[in-house]
Amino acid sequence: xxxxxxxxxxxxxxxxxxxxxxxxxxxxxxxxxxxxxxxxxxxxxxxxxxxxxxxxxxxxxxxxxxxxxxxxxxxxxxxxxxxxxxxxxxxxxxxxxxxxxxxxxxxxxxxxxxxxxxxxxxxxxxxxxxxxxxxxxxxxxxxxxxxxxxxxxxxxxxxxxxxxxxxxxxxxxxxxxxxx
Length: 180
Hints:
Number of strands: 7
Mean pLDDT: 96
Number of domains: 1
Strand order of the largest sheet: 2-1-3-4-5
Order of helices and strands: EHEHEHEHEEEH
Structural class: alpha/beta
CATH architecture: 3-Layer(aba) Sandwich
Distance between the termini: 20 Å
């Protein structure tokens, strides 16, 4: 049995034409190469989550909470929409409580300004959910890291931040596992 942590790479966008699957795949490839945990992509879109309080069908919400409970930590891949996070990500965060608690998360954001404003909003939400966010944050520019704003081609300079982010994430989640 492995003592490695289970880290979910949460894809925050669900809209058509989204680039989060490309970014998430890149994050997973780098994470797997690091080899310090078990990483898996967790796509919010596949859970068909209803808006909070708008449906009596809780099957997707139950599956979502079960998946989160299996994970020791998270990497959020988020776009910046109107200076904040996608509504789908906010809704997914709101549809769980305890499965988030006492875990750590990292943020990989993208947008015109690298998704910096989305990441700042996300940090506030994570704090309320008792998720510790690591300091190192990877910001991807729609102008420099994407061809025609749609084909992901990250610059090599992100490698240093990605490695630091992975190291911090594992360190924090190892410590927080003792709290849980």
